[in-house]
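Troubleshooting entry. Yesterday's outputs looked truncated, so today I'm pasting the complete records for two proteins to confirm everything comes through intact. If either block looks cut off, that's the bug. Protein one:
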Amino acid sequence: MNAPAPAPAVPRPYSQYVYAYPHKTAYRRLTPRPSLRELWAGEPKDALSLYLHIPFCEVRCGFCNLFTRIGAPDGLTGAYLDALDRQATAVREALGDGEPVRFATAAFGGGTPTFLTAAELERLCDIAERRAGVDLRAVPLSVEASPATATADRLAVLADRGATRLSLGVQSFVDSEARAAVRPQRRADVEAALGRIREARIPVLNIDLIYGIDGQTERTWTESLDAALAWDPEEIYLYPLYVRPLTGLGRLGADADAAWDRHRLALYRQGRDHLRDRGYEQRSMRMFRRADAPATGEEDHACQTDGMIGLGCGARSYTRGLHYSFDYAVDMRQIRAIVDDYTARPAEDFRYAEYGRVIDGDEARRRHLLQSLLQADGMERAGYTARFGSGPEADFPAELARFAERGWLDGSAPDGLLRLSEEGLAHSDALGPELFSPAVRAAMAAYDVK
């Protein structure tokens, strides 16, 4: 039914981090621009996800290729929130009044949302509630922060407005490794920030760590893991270091090779086993959750099927038939231009989608399989078949056969469950890209990263 995607004979374990499919580099300008009212007219709206993007950071880490700019001239954050307010109002109107609109989950990301002052964070929450229409105290609200911006006044605002999860980008507790990742921070400041977060009593603390940093050893990796565990976080994410074009490390000429792949894979396995031995359950290649952590309450939102409303430049939105966003860039000058363009837009401009990619039946199948399979729980074949009218083996015989031959599928999984083996989870960043369609691969290859 579907043309099998080409695959390398011996895939590298760290081909590409797949956190959404299709990737933004497969998006193109939409001509003519479709109206949001038409796009959302026939969509289910009873379990939407809301994401607000804040594209500002105090520094840009050497590995970062996210849509973010360093600092903000006087007045820019206020102008950005003004534009966010206009966009949220226009989008909420586009969702219509014919059927109830309900958000099941919300998140503030970036960039660094806590780059905003406490008063600006209050306004951000007001925009989410009064303009977009989400009750932040009634749904899971996740917020990203950095150690330097996790101040007591900001955290108090987030706790008061209903934040249930605070994700702190630490990356390494070893100062020399932080410098090697072009991330200027001191362990003492990180520890102080973690203390403030615990004092704020936000229910779930997540700590992000990175493995594969120049100079990192098994000993120093254990040091970072144990330093994180000392705070008893509900979640820990372990990320492999990537060197991407136009990032600080990319400009320094760092590159990947087979020896580095082996090193990262060894550190991943070490970190995985270390956390599991200490009571953490593996939820994906990256995510580890304390077995007794409180429930997040996200059970009624499914990322494979439910829609997402993204507000702010750098945010994506998903309907069943189209994924869309604003323009994308990595280069600082290009990002500044896109942010300036966003802040100058009139309300009418926010009633249309500008860049995106159509999701046809084949792409919907790929997305569902990919986003389900990369979770440790795997995918129920019956749910896939009920949605698409065919089974995954019938739709993707070559890919699944290849994964099985490599030992990436769990042969002991219960009947009806398609699940990755431990080795499959370890190779998620190789497996995910092999499910990309030929059309998406071609679009990504042709994209001029700027």
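Protein two, checking that the full record survives here as well:
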Amino acid sequence: MIKRKVIAVYTGLTLLLSATPVFGAVSAQDAQRLGEDLTPMGAEQAGNADGTIPSWEGGITAVPAGFKDGGHHPSPFPDDVPIFTITQDNMGDHTERLSVGHQALLQQYGDTFKMHIYPTRRSASYPAWVYQATKNNATTAQLVDDGNGVEGTIKSVPFPIPQNGLEVVWNHLLRFRGTSGRRMIGQAPVTRKGAYTMVMLQDEFYSPYHQPSAVETELNNVIFFFKQKVMAPARLAGQIYLAHETLNQAKQHRMSWIYNPGQRRVRRAPNVAFDNPGTAADGLRTSDQLDMFNGSPQQYTWELKGKKEIFVPYNAYKLDDNALKYRDILQTRHMNPDVLRYELHRVWIIDAVLKEGVRNIYKRRTFYVDEDSWQIVLADQYDNRDQLWRVSEGHAINYYEVPTLWTTVDVHYDLQSGRYITVGMNNEEAFGWEFSVNLSPKNFTPSALRRDGKR
């Protein structure tokens, strides 16, 4: 029998975590807690002791007036104002609730960076069939092949009651984000002086794993199709990236292709993974930092540190507001703090340490994973000297038309160069995510990639 140790976190919560990895499902009795003292997704239903985190009451269950499918998202909380603001001067009063990365940003950019703290809104919500799938997965899902794959799971997160770090990261990778979608977004690599050239990207995805009728045995090991086309500037336009993400990375790694407009040909791209430079990112993010973290977890040893209450970006509806211009948001050294929203939430903390003999520009990474959604909302990345190098924020909203909680803008701050990059901006675009778009696996083949490139 596997022994377990009790880890007490400062919030007063007591967590049972495995002393060694558990590669198995939980009991039916434990799974029964989902929808009772735990939410259907595995978070603590109750609020915290001092009431600064409320209980989960179902999240957002109605679409606000004025929203049109594919459009920008009006805030469900238009009257909320900050409770207080954290600056370099008062950060010592809040250290226990600040990530290492946020402490570093406040210290390095203290004359301009600040964090407006708003009331906590536990807005995450999902379709009823996703909740049922989560409960089903809890008693059947298992890590396989040293954690490089999962079996016995479909439609939702596999481990709503996680027992180790690998289970938490797989929950992030397999969380429900809709069944398919398309968006036009801007990616802005910002210089030290605040200059940038907006790179426009068209993203499309289709998820066989997340279809309401999905059956694990019919997936053919593919969980997610993703296609990204560079639309502007002209010197980069036309390049298209295609990926087929797999459920068991040991059986088959991610399959990927690139259409090169200069050569007018499609070629395999096996290196578009891990720390390979991100598409048109000017070296400011890696391929596996898209969506905060993606792809195989095989390069790292994952340690579950526990759960903690910290301030995280959340309900970032202002970042989706089409009344703002890009220049209103993109400032020197960091995004405009007056359009950012932070709230107190409970997060799972996992440390990823690079395995011996493996090469990656990040020796260690700390991920902060929202308990209500399994979305990574913060990440700290360290270089090979064990120095904090990059700090990432995932500014999340509830896409209530689905519903699902996902980021609207990701930002990666490079503390060493004084630069940063944002991914996901669409304030000046006519539409955002279109989750009702009619896509299928036929849209994500190498031959479809070739046709897209020639149009």
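Both blocks look complete. Sanity check on protein two: Residues 1-22 have pLDDT under 50 and may be disordered.
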